[in-house]
Recover the amino acids of this structure.
């Protein structure tokens, strides 16, 4: 009881004695400073994040969920965490509608004069398809584009931009590629062709299914230049497309990897540190999400190397199936709901392509005080840390299933990725040369400090949201449409 009363006693005594607030802050943060300093030295001198990412690429390659490579990556991380001294490491298995590309032939032109076009299949497209239909331009592929002429896509193959077109009205909100595929299906299309926003013919892959289930129509991606050429040809009329594809599909197995450090004082309060281990198969997946996954593994190594015993339990979780529709994180949350441990999760920190952060963020503005206190101490360790907290809410990464259950989420941001790295998102150029070792160390050390600050804070004042408050948060951030399309809007 004395331990829990101590902060109150110190604060009251200080108030009565007229001791200024900064002194109280310094008292509260003294333990943080010492541990943050140790974390800083450990990571700068001994980080293995980059080396282990490099090694995994050399030994395994890509990490596609459900593939032999994916299974090897799961085992690699499991064994690595064991070697770091974790006794509590486990697999969390789940089954998924597996998918792997085999064959694709896209041809566009006029009847009798069809020409092949370079393309890649988007994931969760049919096991086989061979469709020919008129090609129609649906602009950005948003619902407003369809509503202008609801019959325009019926029985046609739709062409749409992955990112918003230059002439799009200001304030227009883009949708994920899977939502655009869902809209094409909703309005009766026989197929969908999305074109990339990166010049040079770069081809992008990714899931075209929000739910992880196979689509009933084929969906492919072409390059930016080809996309604009097709738009121009459509204006002249008479363009049709043929999409022939074959993909390997069927039930496949995958596993999340979980390493746990039990809390020394508050074991039933949990900080989940997560990010996806899986990647697409066109390249090595170094940026998406080797950056996040192997940074998390090194955060775990750092805690073990320093013998840190946090007050709250910390779970380091490497999710599989993120790219197929957040399958691993949905499995984790579903099981936590089933066994009641969902109420133990005080925060979920997500690391997806996180690189060289300079600040922290959370989805709830109420987190600002605590995050800024932690960030203030971080900035005394390294003055390059800006500590510009932001409250931001978004979808389509492994924080989403937690957020939709009202759990506070956040992580590290205000960092940078090179233009080359951004251009290679989900593309065949996402390779190790895009990763900067020092920037990866910055992710590990600053994020480890955030984790420790949350795990050892005297109190976490941010509470799990009620269902009504979750709904309002989604409405306030204009996410209703995207959640409805994805089948995740439950408030009717």
């Amino acid at each position: 009881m004395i331990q829990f009363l101590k902060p109150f006693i110190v604060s009251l005594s200080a108030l009565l004695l007229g001791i200024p607030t900064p002194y109280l802050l310094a008292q509260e943060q003294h333990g943080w400073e010492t541990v943050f300093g140790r974390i800083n030295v450990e990571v700068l001198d001994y980080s293995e994040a980059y080396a282990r990412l490099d090694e995994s690429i050399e030994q395994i390659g890509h990490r596609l969920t459900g593939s032999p490579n994916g299974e090897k990556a799961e085992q690699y991380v499991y064994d690595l965490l064991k070697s770091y001294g974790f006794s509590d490491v486990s697999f969390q298995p789940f089954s998924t509608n597996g998918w792997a590309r085999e064959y694709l032939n896209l041809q566009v032109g006029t009847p009798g004069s069809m020409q092949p076009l370079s393309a890649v299949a988007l994931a969760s497209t049919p096991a086989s398809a061979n469709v020919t239909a008129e090609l129609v331009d649906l602009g950005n592929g948003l619902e407003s584009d369809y509503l202008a002429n609801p019959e325009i896509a019926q029985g046609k193959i739709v062409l749409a931009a992955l990112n918003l077109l230059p002439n799009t009205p200001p304030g227009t909100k883009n949708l994920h590629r899977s939502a655009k595929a869902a809209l094409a299906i909703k309005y009766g299309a026989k197929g969908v062709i999305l074109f990339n926003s990166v010049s040079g013919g770069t081809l992008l892959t990714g899931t075209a299914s929000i739910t992880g289930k196979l689509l009933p129509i084929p969906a492919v991606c072409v390059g930016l230049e080809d996309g604009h050429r097709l738009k121009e040809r459509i204006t002249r009329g008479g363009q049709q497309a043929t999409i022939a594809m074959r993909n390997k599909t069927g039930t496949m197995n995958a596993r999340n990897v979980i390493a746990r450090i039990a809390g020394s004082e508050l074991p039933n309060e949990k900080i989940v540190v997560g990010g996806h281990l899986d990647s697409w198969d066109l390249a090595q997946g170094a940026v998406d999400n080797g950056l996040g996954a192997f940074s998390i593994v090194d955060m775990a190594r750092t805690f073990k190397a320093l013998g840190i015993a946090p007050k709250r339990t910390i779970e380091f979780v490497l999710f599989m199936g993120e790219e197929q529709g957040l399958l691993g994180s949905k499995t984790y949350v579903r099981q936590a709901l089933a066994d009641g441990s969902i109420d133990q999760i005080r925060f979920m920190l997500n690391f997806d392509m996180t690189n060289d952060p300079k600040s922290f963020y959370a989805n709830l503005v109420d987190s600002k005080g605590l995050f800024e206190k932690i960030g203030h101490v971080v900035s005394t360790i390294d003055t390059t840390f800006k500590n510009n907290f932001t409250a931001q809410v978004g979808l389509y990464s492994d924080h989403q299933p937690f957020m939709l259950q009202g759990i506070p989420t956040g992580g590290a941001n205000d960092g940078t990725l090179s233009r080359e790295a951004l251009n290679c998102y989900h593309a065949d150029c996402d390779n190790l040369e895009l990763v900067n070792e020092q920037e990866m160390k910055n992710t590990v050390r600053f994020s480890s400090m955030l984790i420790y600050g949350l795990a050892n804070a005297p109190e976490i004042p941010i509470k799990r949201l009620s269902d009504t408050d979750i709904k309002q948060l989604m409405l306030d951030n204009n996410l209703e449409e995207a959640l409805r399309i994805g089948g995740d809007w439950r408030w009717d």
About this structure: Confidence is low (pLDDT under 50) at residues 1-27. The chain is about 40% helix and 25% strand. The first helix runs from residue 2 to 17.
